[in-house]
Amino acid sequence: MMRYRFFFLTSLAVELFFPMHYMRAECKEESSYRQYNEGTAEHVKLFYQLNHKHQTLDFVLEKKREYLSLQRKRMDIWEAVDLFDQLVDESDSDLDLPQRYHLFQTAEMLRQDGHPRWLILTGFIHDLGKILALYGEPQWAVVGDTFPLGCAFAQQIVFSEYFEQNPDLQVPLYQTRDGIYSPGCGLDHLHMSWGHDEYLYHVVKDFLPIEALYIIRYHSFYSAHREGAYEHFMNEQDKKMLPWLQLFSRYDLYSKCPEKLDLDALLPYYQELVDEFFPSALSW
Question: CA 219, CA 233: separation in Å to the nearest integer?
Fold first, then answer.
């Protein structure tokens, strides 16, 4: 395993060392992103209805057994990017370009603002786990906001009212604040709803620094890093990693702009970057 050492940045230090220059004239206003309300597109509402109905603790445990042995195939990052480009994310109301543009947009804004190479790479690969959809998984088991199972659903979760049909509501223990966990147990002890975050984390966990892995694993956990829910489960490591996750989240979200990048011109830089961190093939 490659080993890295990075200093911890508080939220204030992140702002001081890495000022937020990522907003571009071509992008929407911040308040225009992640609008989940009565005006949300019907296909996005339907996605979350299915997601909140079918994501149960038993389902998550089943998918972990099915996928986390990483025996499905061997391929490199670029093969995964080619597969990724075939997807349309039904939960995303902010991106109208081919999927790979989001990877390049996120990474390029991080690069332009002078962030470390490992963070730029994280921006470039963070959504590649969505290739789960090409294995036959329904989108509600691949994309969208993530949340822990085995404890009460937080009101801060997007469209939390849709949980009314979730079978876990019938298990009293799962509807308590702590559920099957204990306070301060750490996010890595939670069984998160199944999707691309957890899958990709396991694919790349031997090759990236802990900060990058934390971002990949929890970047869709918006109810925690954006809304402040589930703080009672966080341990000291989670609290140290949270500023990095919050920093990355803003680049991930606000980089979704209609501007098209010259991907051919950018390719050599990202080929070198991928080669710096990853072997020629990974287990997926």
Answer: 17
Domain assignment present for 8: no
Work out the widest C-alpha separation in the chain, in whole angstroms. Answer: 56
Reported in sequence order, the residue ranges of 130-277 that DSSP labels E, i.e. its strands, are 148-149, 191-192
Determine, yes or no, domain membership for 36: no
Report yes or no on 121 lying in a domain: yes
Q: How many structural domains does the chain have?
A: 1
Domain that residue 271 falls in: 41-87+97-278
The pTM of this model reads 0.86
DSSP helix/strand/coil, 143: coil
Per-residue exposure over 55-80, b if at least 16 CB sit within 10 Å of its own CB, e if not: bbbebbeebeeebeeeeeeebebeeb
Q: What is the pLDDT of residues 130-165, one digit of tens each?
A: 999 999 999 999 999 999 999 999 999 999 999 999
Rounded Cα gap, residues 146 and 34, in angstroms: 14
What is the DSSP secondary-structure string of 14-47?
HHHHS------TTSPPGGGSS--STTS-HHHHHH
> Which pair of structure tokens corresponds to residue 242?
């949270």
**Residues 252/45, Cβ–Cβ less than 8 Å:** no
Q: Residue 78: helix, strand or coil by DSSP?
A: helix
Distance between CA atoms of residues 275 and 52, nearest Å: 38
The reply to whether 27 falls in a domain is no
List of long-range contacts for 2-9, beta carbons under 8 Å, 24+ apart: 2/206, 2/207, 2/208, 2/277, 4/118, 4/208, 4/209, 4/210, 6/116, 6/209, 6/210, 6/211, 8/240, 9/243, 9/244
pLDDT, tens digit, for every residue of 239-254? 999 999 999 999 998 6
For the segment 44-75, what is each residue's pLDDT rounded down to a tens digit?
A: 999 999 999 999 999 999 999 999 999 999 99
